[in-house]
Amino acid sequence: MASHDQSFRAGEATGRAEEKGNRATDTVKERAREARDKTYETGQHAKENTAEKAHETREKASETAEAAKDKTYEGKEKTKGVVQQTGDKVKNMAQKTADTVKSAFGMAHNGEDKDKAGHEQTTTYRETKY
Questions:
Q1: By residue range, what is the domain housing residue 42?
Q2: Using 50, 70 and 90 to split pLDDT, how confident is the model at 119?
Q3: Does 107 map to a domain?
Q4: Rounded to whole angstroms, how far apart are CA atoms 45 and 110?
Q5: Does residue 43 fall inside a structural domain?
Q6: Looking at the 3D structure of the chain, how many domains does it have?
Q7: Rounded to 5 degrees, what are φ and ψ at 121?
Q8: C-alpha to C-alpha distance for 16 and 11, rounded to whole angstroms
Q9: Looking at the domain assignment, is residue 92 inside a domain?
Q10: What is the pLDDT of residues 29-86, one digit of tens each?
Q11: Radius of gyration (Cα) for the chain, nearest Å?
């Protein structure tokens, strides 16, 4: 009978060990599922944060580009005014130079034949026949 009793106990021990192994396996599987779900959630959260940050970066870049465009336009307008003023000054200087040369060679007209002191200049022309 000892053999039957030992067989019975061995069967019980095997059953308990198998049950214990199944519980351990189930626990490991459950933890693996939880880890997988946690990893998925973390990945989704990171994906959402990345998309949000990318959108914010695009918005900031757009705002910066718009500000640069405005500054460029302002600078262009300012430069345009400076160039216009410079052009006017050069034109006036050239006109004064031309008037001075005309006056010096007696080519001035309409009261423009006065020197700097306001004295009228006279030039005598002789007709030469060939």
A1: 7-73
A2: low
A3: no
A4: 87
A5: yes
A6: 1
A7: -100, 140
A8: 9
A9: no
A10: 999 999 999 999 999 999 999 999 999 999 999 999 999 999 998 888 888 888 888 8
A11: 51
